[in-house]
Design brief:
Layout (H helix, E strand, L loop, with lengths): L3 H22 L14 E5 L2 E4 L3 E4 L35
Antiparallel strand pairs: 1-2, 2-3
Length: 92
Amino acid sequence: MKKAGGDLRKQVVFRQYREWFAINLFQKSIEPRCAYCSRGRDLNPGQVVCSKKGVMSAGSHCEAFRYDPLKRVPPRPAKLAGMSLRDEDFQM
């Protein structure tokens, strides 16, 4: 027989993990764009076919926007400013 305290602890840990996951990966502050809306399908580079509005610009959006995290391509990471470093710079 399981203890009730163990189940409660698992529920709390799971809830904290779910909140962290939602905050860090699926942010609500993402600017809406047709390019990563679940209702849109790619037509040409820069154009999307929307099930509600028809052909739209990939940068536009409407009130029917639904975020699809799998369509969004994250920005490339910034390059390291010190790319001119040599091996001697890391020796003591």
